[in-house]
Amino acid sequence: MVDAADKLAYFQAITGLEDPDLCTEILAAHGWDLEVAISSFTSGNSSTARHDSSAAVSHDDDDIGASSSVGRVDSLQSVPQSEPAPPGLAWKLIKLPVSVISGSLGLISGAVGLGLWAAGGVLSYSLGMIGLGSGSSRNDQSSARLLPVSAAASEAMDFVARFEREYGTTRPNFVSEGFMDALQRSRNAFKLLFVYLHSPDHPDTPLFCERTLCSEVFVAFVNENFVSWGGSIRNSEGFKMSNSLKASRFPFCAVVMAATNQRIALLQQVEGPKSPEEMLTMVQRVLEESAPVLIAGRLEAEERQNNIRLREEQDAAYRAALEADQARERQRREEQERLEREAAEAERLRKEEEEARERAAREAAEKQAALAKMRQEKAQSLGEEPEKGPNVTQVLIRFPNGERKERRFHSNMTIQSLYDYVDSLGCLEVEDYSLVSNFPRVVYGQEKLTLSLEEAGLHPQASLFVEVNS
Description:
Blueprint: H1 4-15, H2 20-29, H3 34-44, H4 46-70, H5 92-95, H6 115-130, H7 149-167, H8 179-189, E1 192-198, H9 205-213, H10 216-225, E2 226-232, H11 236-244, E3 252-258, E4 264-271, H12 276-382, E5 392-398, E6 404-410, H13 415-425, E7 433-437, E8 442-444, E9 461-468
Parallel strand pairs: 1-2, 5-9
Antiparallel strand pairs: 1-3, 3-4, 5-6, 7-8, 7-9
Helix pairs in contact: 1-2, 1-3, 1-6, 10-12, 12-13
């Protein structure tokens, strides 16, 4: 369960208040219920946010621009206690401290905080996981409730579907989930997060999407090396991200990296239309300069996994040793049971084989009797062999084993008569065969059985051979 110190730290991070005593009093007044205290605090200061927002934006933009121009790595400070009351939820997106990556990277043009939306997203998820989420009875008290995960995922899926309908499927693989989930996905994959904020009404958007964002070379590189997230500024999460990243010109792209304590580092931002070559050069440079950090993180994770795997292997070996004796005893019993089953099975098989032999012998005798009867019936159906004459056809039939048989038929008899004659001889062990003439080659198959010998061109004499069908 979350203790008082953790709740106090969460409350300070979200509200921007630095005085721990004041934060403790506020939490105690609301029974140490984080969501109720945050909701009450932000609702009470929403009017102040509207009056102070213009001046605060100007002040913060000047600070960030100065930091970028001199290449410093300074973090934005929280509002001092002597200033007016802290602004509302929307403004704290910029007032929270931010993480900046410097030194070997040399990439950061400025630092951008996820603000209350990012911290609140993780906080809401964390409270839900530990069972501190407020019930339905508190719905009326949470007028400034954070964006649910399901709503963020729904917006992301809607954006991807709309983008595909307008620009096709050759595109960065935007994940269909909220920004925080996409950020966590990039962190788990040890990749940078490519962010695209879509402004549907901007005149440069269609051309940028078609020629640059959906360029095959750019898409292939981004999909291989980045996790991509996109959002429309018409939607809630896309609009909040445009405020957090201070997008002032569209099309807007950024490359960010997950940092500690619910912060992100802005490695590169691209505002305005760019060619595919320019975009590819930028993201390649960012990836190359970020490689040491990503590789170090991956190696550290692999080392942890190796240690976990080693412990698991040791535990598995220990369990295997404990189970070895039981396995041997079980094997001995199973071997005894197997021998008994095999003896019974052998006896059963012997009886079945004996029955099968008897059954096969009966079936063979019945088949031979049936064949003999069939041959006799077909021989009888042919009638007596006619004497030579003008209406008599002389037929020579050669078998595959070289044997030859010759017989005379009336010319008006059918091709079926020739098959009946071959069957009546009993020279073949197969039933599927065809009668074929050589020159010219003609197969007298099923479609010609009803033709007379004269109609089939076999009169007055013919030489056929038996061809076994495969």
